[in-house]
Amino acid sequence: MTEWLIKGASPLGDDPVDVLIRDGAIIEMGVVDAPGATVVDAEGLILLPGLVDLHTHLREPGREDAETVLSGSQAAALGGFTAVCAMANTDPVADTAGVVEQVWSLGRDAGYVDVQPIGAVTVGLAGEQLAELGAMASSAAKVRVFSDDGHCVSDPRLMRRALEYVKAFDGVIAQHAEEPQLTVGAQMHEGVVSAKLGLAGWPAVAEEAIIARDALLAGHVGSRLHVCHVSTAGSVEILRWAKRNGWRVTAEVCPHHLLLTDELATSYDPVYKVNPPLRTAEDVAALRQGLAEGVIDIVATDHAPHSLEDKECEWSAARPGMMGLQTALSIVIKTMVESGAIDWDGVAQRMSRTPARIAGLADHGHDPAVGGQANLTLVDPNAEWTVVGAELAGPSRNTPYAGMTLPGAVRATFLRGRPTVLDGKLTEGVSA
Ligand code: DOR
Ligand code: ZN
What we know:
432 residues; nine-stranded mixed beta sheet; binds zinc ion; alpha/beta; 2 domains; 29% helix; TIM Barrel
C-alpha cells in the first residue's frame, strides 16, 4: 500500500512536523525521511483532524436532481470533511432500518467521506408516531442520532418518549426547534425588515420556546438533546441556563447564521431563504459569542442543496436552505478565527472533535497522533478564493456566498490514510 509523507504541516497551528501514513494510520510524526513514500508538500499548511458535519442534507433517496450521496460526499471532501451525518428528510424518509442501511452503503460505495445516517424520530416525519428507533440503532448503519429536521417534534409527549427510548443506547435527539403554531406561513425573521417587506414573520420565540421545553425534558429524562441550527440571541441564553443546570444539551450554529442577516431578504432573492431564517446583526453577534464561549458546542453546515426549479422562483414558493459544505470552514475562519475569537485548536474542537463525539463516530475527531487513523485535513490559511456557484460540486447552485472572496482553502483531505482531495481537487476516492 502507498505510503504518504505529509511534509512540514502545522498541527493545529503548532510547529511544523512531518507525518508518515501507512495502511490507514499515522505511523510516525516528527522529522521523517521515507524514501518510498509519496510526498505531500504541506509547508505553511495547517493540519486539522478531518472535519465532521453533524447536519448534512444529501437528498438521496428521492431528490437526486438536487444532490446524491456521491455528489454530497465529494462536496464534503472538498470542504475538508471526513465524515458527515445525513439528515433523514429524504423520500422515502429515513425512518426504517432499510433506508438508513441504503444511505450508509451508498456512502461507503461513494468513498469520499464516512456517511453516517441520521434516523427520523417519527414515522414519515409526521410527528405522530415514533419511528423504529431501536431497529435503526441495531442496523448496519448503527444510528445514534435521530432527527425530524425540517420539522419540529412539537408534541411534548412524543419528544419525551423519544428521549427516553434513545437513552438505552446513548442515542441523541437532534431537534429542529420551531413551534409550528408560531410560524404558520412564515417567510423570514419576524422583525423590522419583515414588517417593511410585508412578509409573514418567523419569530425568535418559536425557536426559544422549544429549546427551553426540550432542555427541561432532557434534564427530566436524563437523556441527550442536541439543538440544530440555533439562530437567536435568546436561544444562546437558554442554552447557557440549560448547561448551568448540568443537563446533557449540546447545540450547533450554522455558518450562514454567523455571517448573514435578515437585511438580505430585501433583495427578494430566495438564495437567502433558509429555515430557521437569517436573523439580525444582534443575533449574529450573540451566536459568535456563544460559539466562542462554548455555550454553542459546534458548527454544523445544514448543507441544503435545492434544484434550480425549487430555488430560482419567487420568494414565497422557494424552498428554504443553502449549500454549505464547501464554504463552512472559510466562513468560520472569516467570522471566528480572523477576529481572534477562536484559534485553530478551537476550530478542531467545534468542527471535528465535538461533532464526532456527539455523533458517536469513534474513528473521527482525533488530533493527528501516531497510531491513530489518518482522517486529516490540510488547510492553507493564507489562501483566498472566490465562490462561484457553477464550480461547486453537485447539481445545485444555491450558495449565498457567490461572488464573495473567502479566506482559507482546503488543500488536501485524507480518509483512512488515503487522499480524497489533493492540491484542492478530488481524487478518485477511497473504495471500501
Ligand atoms: O433551510 C432548511 N432546509 N432548513 C431545514 O430545516 C431543512 C432544510 C432542507 O431540507 O432543505
Ligand atoms: Zn432544520
